[in-house]
Amino acid sequence: xxxxxxxxxxxxxxxxxxxxxxxxxxxxxxxxxxxxxxxxxxxxxxxxxxxxxxxxxxxxxxxxxxxxxxxxxxxxxxxxxxxxxxxxxxxxxxxxxxxxxxxxxxxxxxxxxxxxxxxxxxxxxxxxxxxxxxxxxxxxxxxxxxxxxxxxxxxxxxxxxxxxxxxxxxxxxxxxxxxxxxxxxxxxxxxxxxxxxxxxxxxxxxxxxxxxxxxxxxxxxxxxxxxxxxxxxxxxxxxxxxxxxxxxxxxxxxxxxxxxxxxxxxxxxxxxxxxxxxxxxxxxxxxxxxxxxxxxxxxxxxxxxxxxxxxxxxxxxxxxxxxxxxxxxxxxxxxxxxxxxxxxxxxxxxxxxxxxxxxxxxxxxxxxxx
Length: 370
Description:
Elements: E1 3-5, E2 13-16, E3 39-43, E4 50-56, E5 62-67, E6 73-77, E7 83-88, E8 93-95, E9 101-103, E10 109-115, E11 122-128, E12 134-138, E13 149-157, E14 162-170, E15 176-184, E16 189-195, E17 205-207, E18 212-214, E19 220-227, E20 234-241, E21 245-250, E22 257-262, E23 268-273, E24 279-284, E25 293-295, E26 299-303, E27 309-313, E28 319-323, E29 335-336, E30 346-350, E31 355-362, E32 365-369
Antiparallel strand pairs: 1-7, 2-3, 3-32, 4-5, 5-6, 6-7, 8-10, 9-10, 10-11, 11-12, 13-14, 14-15, 15-16, 17-19, 18-19, 19-20, 20-21, 22-23, 23-24, 24-25, 26-27, 27-28, 28-29, 30-31, 31-32
């Protein structure tokens, strides 16, 4: 059963550096050197934590989603760095791969899980209150009854009080297909839309690994990849208007998406792995169709309000680098992570306070830097 666990004060260590808050230094993130850490929170939700997503509200409240030996967990950290609560969901479930956490203006949190307790995999979308109480769940039915249906994440359109989910399922023909589902904020299903690939011999269909995004205009984009034949894959972008209307299918041409993020203006940013094994970051702007690379080994961990990107490296040293919209490195040297902690898993920026938030793990739990 899901449970809520208050983190004891002794397991929450808060460090505050007296160098002035970043919000008092407008534009500090845009300088040639990285900002100075103002505050660090560390806590231990459970042994073996891994991180899935982070959301920062304009108030400075942070929600963290992850997985652990005790099952999926969600934590709320207040603006002063205090861990308010951590709630655990069913141990048999695991967070979805991409973009699984959304928070509405009232502080309710939504995220996607995959339940492996039954004979087939079942997608689950859950809702938690601002105080960490599990309010409900949705279990979308597979269009092919009795087959696996997996969740690849959710996204919230708070101005229209609607939630979208990206899922995939195994069709009656044995091919994968992508399912987009729309919910109201009580997790009642409103409508759905299925995307399939016309299957030539040996085709595996389409999979939704890549994330789901909504623009300020309410347009929804699902990222995934088509597999028109064995050992081939190409990125597919499924673009919908509000309420999953007027789908347009695009194939930008890149292969094997590994991670994706979205900026507030509807652009999509992807972290890709080429067939050669080299890691390349690309930004795809739907208005311009532009593509450019940032070379380097590591992970794209965040996209800022101005389209800037944050790239986290664990080797040869743990550091975070900021790139501008043209792909040029801004910080020199990069922002270093504590030696006993992992490279940041996610980075978030909130404007106009110009604050940078980083979250990662260490041997004893989770850290949150501001």
